[in-house]
Amino acid sequence: MVVRNSVYRLLICVASLISIFGAMAVAQDPTKTEPTHYKLAFENEYVQVVNVHYGPHEKSGLHAHPGGVVVVLTAGHLQFTDENGKTHEVFAKPGEARWFPPFKHKVENLGETSYSAVYIGIKNKKLNSEAALTGGEFEMDEQTKKLVAEALLAAMK
Length: 157
Fold this sequence. Notes:
With 157 residues, this protein is α+β, with helices and mostly antiparallel strands. It has helices at 2-27, 30-33, 125-133, 142-156, and strands at 38-43, 47-54, 63-65, 68-72, 76-82, 87-92, 97-100, 103-109, 115-122. The model is unreliable at 13-27 (pLDDT under 50).
């Protein structure tokens, strides 16, 4: 009987830990923790497409993104602070596309104007890990930038 009670206690502890860590993982999803700035546009088993919008001088709390591509819709002057407190200032240009490996950060719009972008996150963990190894920034040619910007703006209407 003592062994059985010990096993039940252990199972309850494990279940509690799984619940806590699961809640923590979900809590960092920007569409859940920062719904003012991040709105789900589309999702399937492969990708999560999120509309990003920060008004002038708005800030976010710490949140996580899977690896993916951000496509900038409007110019922005942003400051990113990672989970270790390291800051990185960015001047984003419309039509610019950047790859990011999985990351956690806070965002602050340092500009006097609103900033908008679309983040396309890879949901498949294996693909996400493989893509992180070959990551880096890439530039689109002017024609591609124009086509992507037009498509994304049309999708937001």
